Amino acid sequence: MCVAERNRKLLADFFTHVLNAHDLMPIDGFLSPDFVNRTPLPGTSCCTEGFKRTLTITFCCYHDLHYTWTNCTVKDDRVTIRWVAEASHPGGVIGKQGVIVPVGRKLRWEGETVVRIRDGRIEEWLTRQDEASLLEQLGALPLVLVEN
Q: Mean pLDDT over residues 86-101, rounded?
């Protein structure tokens, strides 16, 4: 198996066994000791422990969260995955504006994750997602302009 195939398989296994299984037990076997999350949640760090905290919060917010790949591109040590996420929101998430109540239907949003791999482990993680679509589905958008 060539390096590109190994890197693609590593990410496929990570999505299957960690993200879609909502299981942090195997995560240390996937992440490099020098792992950096370039998109941590506010209040979490960019190291492995902060990434675990980010995932724990995400799994609590969306109990049945599932990612489906729509595209995967591998170039050298970089893997770019475009995905669609689907999940239910049980509510109870507290934000700056108060509690976000459950919406009672499946949520769906798209995103892209770019990963750098070194020595067969994930060293760098960056995710961008359509947060406006997600917030709109949660009822947090559109924002209402209040004139003074």
A: 72
3-state secondary structure 40-87: CCCCCCCCHHHHHHHHHHHHHHCCCCEEEEEEEEEECCEEEEEEEEEE
Ranges of each domain in the chain: 3-136
Nearest-5° angle of CA 127, CA 26, CA 21?
65
- Distance, CA of 24 to CA of 5 (rounded, Å): 24
CATH of range 3-136; options 3.10.20.30, 3.40.50.150, 2.60.120.260, 3.10.450.50:
3.10.450.50
Q: HSE-up of 22 (CA within 13 Å, CB side)?
A: 12
pLDDT above 90 (res 83): yes
Size of the chain, expressed as the number of residues it contains: 148
CA distances from 117 to 47, 76, 121 (A): 15, 9, 5
pLDDT digits (tens, 9 = 90+) for 9-56: 999 999 999 999 999 999 999 999 999 999 998 888 999 999 999 999
Q: pTM of this prediction? A: 0.88
Cα distance between residue 46 and residue 40, in whole Å: 6
